[in-house]
Amino acid sequence: MIYPPKPQAGDKVAVLSPSAGLPGILPLPFEAGLTVLREEFGLMPVEFPATRVMGASARERAADVNAAFADPSIKAIIASIGGDDQITVTPHLDDAVIRANPKPFFGYSDNTNLLLHLWNLGIVAYHGGSVMCQFGRCGGTHPASAESLRAALFTSGPYTLPESFEFSDVDKPWDDPASFDAPPPMRACDGWHWHNPDRVVEGATWGGNLEILSWLLMADRGIRPAAAYEGMVLIVETSEELPSAEEVFRILRNMGERGLLAKFPAILIGRPKAWSLNHRLTPAESAKYADDQREAVLKALTHYAPATMAVFDVDFGHTDPQVVIPYGGQIRVDGPARTITVTY
């Protein structure tokens, strides 16, 4: 796997919408994110033609990705946000151009498609850090998110992930300017939960958003034979659509039936998002949702990978704060020390 060269302060970075062109209809978090990129990270964001176009075709969005990789002045690529149809975009990517011009790509959720595509090309990418959600967060980027983003963007080498004891998954309306006056409300949490923490596992990461992974598995898009994942560390997280515990179990069960789960000696499960504007759960309901999801994962592991070490509620994916996980990069999961160290 190749770690692409990192940008430096003053460099240009592409901000693209490979999934949904939400910057065009919800400009407030997008503009806030651009400001943070310029003023706090010292980068020069460059928009491409489809960045603010809701409903842009798959070919138009792929053309932006191809152009961003081809442009020698662009030193990194950051997704504006996710969506639900990036699976239609990746067939139009120019792999020869991307291989010849590897660059750090940041995104998560539906951007699991691009992360996996880059992994198959031998390029390390970065799970996390979208313009509208992390850089454009209401009230400013969370300090823990900002620290991880800076390390992933500008440095190379080991980075020990911080364990958060407060979090938020409550959304503010992005069409209300008042939403950006203060950060979202934070809630206390217990940190990470460990299962089978009796060893140290080192390897490359693979996975992403669990719902998107299930679609990729159904389409047989970019999935290799199970033996290719031997010794890797699986990273999975769920979205604001709040898939049920039963659905989470079924996806993992099917991965087990395919022979995948048993290949991973360790798995990281992101802190589940348990509230959204379309699913306004009470704190008690949110806690039960998270507990039920954990039990669903453990049930699947019991059947298909009983010896696998698992770490629950790691701060990646659809949660705040969010840390960046190198996709295809190296990770060390130290059970006895209860630490997780990635290599940026």
From TrEMBL:
Instruction: Give the Gene Ontology MF terms in alphabetical order.
Output: carboxypeptidase activity
Q: Name one Pfam family in it.
A: Peptidase_S66C
| Entry superkingdom | Bacteria
The record ties this protein, via CDD domains, to: Peptidase_S66_mccF_like
Name the keywords, alphabetized.
Carboxypeptidase, Hydrolase, Protease
Please report the stretch or stretches of sequence annotated as the LD-carboxypeptidase C-terminal domain.
202-333
Q: Where is the LD-carboxypeptidase N-terminal domain?
A: 13-128
Q: Which InterPro entries does the protein's record reference?
A: Carboxypeptidase_A_C_sf, Class_I_gatase-like, LdcA_N, Peptidase_S66_N, Peptidase_S66C, S66_fam
Q: Write down the SUPFAM superfamilies for this protein, in alphabetical order.
A: Class I glutamine amidotransferase-like, LD-carboxypeptidase A C-terminal domain-like
Return the similarity comment.
Belongs to the peptidase S66 family.
* UniProt-recorded name of the protein: Muramoyltetrapeptide carboxypeptidase LdcA involved in peptidoglycan recycling
Give the source species: Nonomuraea endophytica
